[in-house]
Amino acid sequence: MKLLILASSSKRRVDILRMLGFKFLVIPSGVDESVSECSPILIARRLAFKKSFTVWKDYKYATVIGADTLVVADGKVLGKPKDAEQALQMLRALSGRWHSVITAVCIISTGKRIVFHDIARVKFRHIEDKELKEYIQTSEPWDKAGAYAVQGFGATFVEKIVGDFYTVMGLPVGKTYKLLKDVLD
Ligand SMILES: Cc1cn([C@H]2C[C@H](O)[C@@H](COP(=O)(O)OP(=O)(O)OP(=O)(O)O)O2)c(=O)[nH]c1=O
């Protein structure tokens, strides 16, 4: 069986990949995640590729997986908030509305790359500013796209999810599992 490397600093991705039963090394890519002026899907796919490729260059004998998650509300891309004010702006933009969560994944194995993405739709209930500010105090929003964690207290904001819960958390499980099994076996 080939060595599998998760090119990520995201604890969520480590947890999901472990849940799927894979054994792997974790090597964060450290890539700059500043977003360019293209469609959100393209941004996520490019970043997922960049993360995998950056690590794969040093471990060409391994299978490397990287991913990128973005929240899109009203056509605007929401990455990770830089400060409390930005977290509040993001959460206000999500309150009472539907948004999309895009997670793109890139797997590089024996020099071949596979890139795919999945989109989940999420509806938040209306949330008062007071509650949002209390949430920001918990520090849960910090390293999360869109300033919330569906797997944490952020779940209390969610009215509906259409699609894969794990796409929202950072790694779509169905396709990732199948592709990794195929390339590793
Ligand atoms: C929307 C949402 C995002 N997230 C997280 C998943 C990702 O870790 C993060 C989005 O940022 P990413 O840039 O996709 O990932 P990252 O910087 O945390 O890790 P790396 O690039 O090293 O792989 O937001 C949640 O944990 N829960 C959620 O509900």
Topology, element by element:
Layout: E1 4-6, H1 11-19, E2 25-26, H2 40-56, E3 63-73, E4 76-78, H3 84-94, E5 98-109, E6 112-124, H4 129-137, E7 158-162, H5 165-169, H6 173-184
Parallel strand pairs: 1-2, 1-3
Antiparallel strand pairs: 3-4, 3-5, 5-6, 6-7
Helix pairs in contact: 3-4
The chain binds thymidine-5'-triphosphate (TTP).
Protein name: dTTP/UTP pyrophosphatase
EC number: 3.6.1.9
Family: Belongs to the Maf family. YhdE subfamily.
Would you mind describing this structure in some detail?
With 185 residues, the protein is an alpha/beta fold. It has a single domain, classed as Maf protein. It has six helices and seven strands. The longest helix has 17 residues, at 40-56. The structure holds thymidine-5'-triphosphate. Residues 8-10, 12-13, 28, 33, 51, 67-69, 71, 80, 101, 143-146, 148-151, 154, 168-170 line the site of thymidine-5'-triphosphate (TTP). The site of thymidine-5'-triphosphate (TTP) has 26 residues, from helix 1, strand 3 and helix 5.
Largest sheet: 7 strands, mixed
Number of individual domains: 1
Q: Name the overall outline.
A: elongated
**What's the mean pLDDT score?**
96
Helical percent range? 25-40%
Write down the secondary-structure element order: EHEHEEHEEHEHH
Intertermini distance: 6 Å
What is the CATH class? Alpha Beta
Q: Helix/strand-derived class?
A: alpha/beta
Gyration radius (Cα, Å) is 16 Å
Tally of strands:
7
Oligomer: single chain
Bound molecules: thymidine-5'-triphosphate
Count of runs of 4 or more consecutive helical residues: 6
Hey, roughly how much beta strand do the residues contain? Answer: 25-35%
CATH topology: Maf protein
Could you name the ranges where pLDDT drops below 50 across 5 or more consecutive residues? none
Give the CATH architecture: Alpha-Beta Complex
